[in-house]
Amino acid sequence: MSVVEDIGRETVDDLVGRLGVAAREAAAALAVASSDKKNRALMTAAEALRARCAQVLEANGQDVADAERDGTSAAFIDRLRLSADRVEAMAAGLEDVARLPDPVGTEIARWQRPNGLDIARVRVPIGVIGIIYESRPNVTADAGSLCLKAGNAAILRGGRESFHSAREITACLAEGLAAAGLAPAAVQQVPTTDRAAVGALLRMSDHVDLIVPRGGKSLIARVAAESRIPVLKHLDGICHVYVHAGADPEKARAIAVNAKMRRTSICGAAETLLVDRSVSGSMLPPILDALIEAGCEVRGDSETQALDGRVIPATEADWGTEYLDAVLSVRVVAGLDQALDHIARYGSRHTDAIVTEDAAAAAAFLTFVDSAIVLHNASTQFADGGEFGMGAEIGISTDRLHARGPVGAEQLTIFKYMVRGTGQVRP
Amino acid sequence: MSVVEDIGRETVDDLVGRLGVAAREAAAALAVASSDKKNRALMTAAEALRARCAQVLEANGQDVADAERDGTSAAFIDRLRLSADRVEAMAAGLEDVARLPDPVGTEIARWQRPNGLDIARVRVPIGVIGIIYESRPNVTADAGSLCLKAGNAAILRGGRESFHSAREITACLAEGLAAAGLAPAAVQQVPTTDRAAVGALLRMSDHVDLIVPRGGKSLIARVAAESRIPVLKHLDGICHVYVHAGADPEKARAIAVNAKMRRTSICGAAETLLVDRSVSGSMLPPILDALIEAGCEVRGDSETQALDGRVIPATEADWGTEYLDAVLSVRVVAGLDQALDHIARYGSRHTDAIVTEDAAAAAAFLTFVDSAIVLHNASTQFADGGEFGMGAEIGISTDRLHARGPVGAEQLTIFKYMVRGTGQVRP
């Protein structure tokens, strides 16, 4: 049952269509708004979030109570529930986005032609971006603010369980926009939980330029299958750490444990460890020790099992599984070539790391592994826009078009060519 | 009836699937092939085209005879027909592409983080690109060579009327690839004219990363509607020339006439001329004279009609029409704001130009007109990858993602992040 209950299918289409028209109009103005205005909107929205913290928490309390009554899982409730600290973190996040450099208007390249034409490639916003996400209220502030920073209008469609929380947060963003003299329609929430609204949004190619789904596999698969609009996808993160024969043992141990265990639920967490046979006897046992002592379940091939009795046999399915949990699959390989083959076959082209002091092996790994992020002697957990110095991100793209890796404000722009002449005509 | 006639639907899927698997494998090797190897393949293919000119012309003669027998139009036959000169132009085109800089492997950006991580954004190929085009044999060489230059495998699907011509040209590309030690499957032609092959290609999202349709509106619309793979589109070019009150009259005349009449059939040809009211009496008559004397039909609003008896009344439909012919719609506007409104309402966001000596008006036009290419005091006919100094192009993208404007070798790449550390783990 939807929150806006008495609307039929046709009305949902009309409703979403009205959002689209308003977003398109807001986007045209926002595209040429000054950095100062956009930043003022973000700073004021942060203040509004702090000032309305009680209302946000009250709305969130209603969402949480409904979800608990419906018997949703504890992990789900944890992602849904806000606290004063979490509201403050959202407000601080808005201020962080305000302080990022404005990508819009920057010249990416500029050159002169022999005929005197001056050609500049200049960043401009994409236009209208639809964000479809799960019941995580903070995504409302994160995604809305990043779109706004890059001069895009946003249409936000969060999970139905977070509807009331998201409505309060969107109201704070609207307050910021209005205070800065920008159209509040630059950030709109779909005002119904009716599932038909998602379909309507995905069909609205006239008014929406890009869809960004944020959430689990099934959400992204549904969006990709249904959308008539380009989709920027973030799929599996089956990330590997490869300990090469030339690795420093201490770096190998520290990176393997950090890549898996620092946070197991993020997409940059390692899921498989590959170790060269020539060093597996010396380097692998201390890694297995450290992992298992830290609470990790290790599923290994027969050679790994032989090194530690606590290792569980890995099956073929393990190599292609994104655990997002304290579980790691471990395989001993003959060398670099077999490691590359394994990653090409089972990896998800997200983030992979090599540990080695051998410069040639590192260079080969960085070149031949076809992933959005390839690292040498560093943990896969650095796969994060903030860690890259790009500021907030809306996700890590595993697509091969437009943007790959962390998607921050700059990746939510496109460019146009400004050509300056003195009367040139083409011969 | 298809050229490969006795294959049912399921076999077409299998056939296209085999092309996809071979292309994916070839792409993996091509992605890390040296510039030298790729260039050698292109240069050898050019030689092969010259050496096999007679065979290419014979195959083309068969295509042309079939098309003539089927009663296709003279314009169609003209695009289909090759000559020794046209084959030489294709060969020279391959050599031009070989001489372009290789975009693959170039560092787009590189920076250090406070923790010592060194982050580089490096260009890499997209992967496998499907090109769907009309019966223009030269596109086989153009599109195949650009994909190859950028390290992508190409699956080419030209119009059925050019099937035999394209087969011969593809064989020359394959010869070049083989001579350079690269997989001939890096450039494959779909070996059937069965229309079901297009559908199969558009559904093959596992093996194809990007679809580029080249051709008329209906082809692009079909591809965009059916494709399960991202599409880089080139839609209408409803391009404007706006003569501002501050224009130099001679530049205005020269640019307006060139933008319309140099070549009327290209997407960068102007379709509408807007002239400020305050100068329409002085500047417009000589422009109308020059256009009409050059053989252009002018369709104008009432103010334009009043200036020249040869002007035909324009209807509402004219403002949104891409004539691609010696026809121009002309409207007198109150000033910059009305010109911007007109372009926003009727334009196709492809290419638009302002003629003025007023720097503020020029800056406003370049900023506010939301088109892939905006020009100041230069003809819209410069909308071309070669004129931009980018070399050959596969089209002018009117999309708002990945690439906008001329799509050359660089635009057929994406990037990855190479992160170099010294043992960093994430706190």
How do the strands and helices of this protein lay out in sequence?
Two copies of one chain form a homodimer.
Chain A: H1 9-31, H2 35-51, H3 53-69, H4 74-80, H5 84-99, E1 107-112, E2 118-125, E3 128-133, H6 137-149, E4 153-157, H7 163-179, E5 187-189, H8 196-203, E6 210-214, H9 217-226, E7 239-243, H10 249-261, E8 270-276, H11 277-293, E9 297-300, H12 302-307, E10 312-313, H13 316-319, E11 327-333, H14 336-346, E12 351-355, H15 359-368, E13 373-378, E14 396-397, E15 405-406, E16 413-424
Parallel strand pairs in A: 3-4, 3-6, 4-5, 7-8, 7-12, 8-11, 9-10, 9-11, 12-13
Antiparallel strand pairs in A: 1-2, 2-16, 14-15
Helix pairs in contact in A: 1-8, 2-5, 2-7, 3-7, 5-6, 6-7, 10-11
Describe this structure in words.
- Two copies of one chain form a homodimer.
- Chain A has 427 residues and is an alpha/beta fold.
- The first copy, chain A, has two domains: 9-232 and 408-417, Aldehyde Dehydrogenase, Chain A, domain 1 (3-Layer(aba) Sandwich); 239-382, Aldehyde Dehydrogenase, Chain A, domain 2.
- Helix content of chain A is 44%, strand content 20%.
- Chain A has 15 helices and 16 strands.
- Chain A has a seven-stranded parallel beta sheet. Chain A has a four-stranded parallel beta sheet with strand order 5-4-3-6, with helices on both faces. In chain A, strands 1-2-16 form a three-stranded antiparallel beta sheet, with no helix packed on it.
- In chain A, helix 1 packs across helix 8, helix 2 runs antiparallel to helix 5 (84-99) and helix 3 runs antiparallel to helix 7.
- Chain A is globular.
- In chain A, 56% of the residues are buried.
- Chains A and B meet through helix 10, helix 15, strand 13 and strand 16 of A and helix 10, helix 15, strand 13 and strand 16 of B.
- Strand 13 (373-378) of chain A pairs parallel with strand 16 (413-424) of chain B.
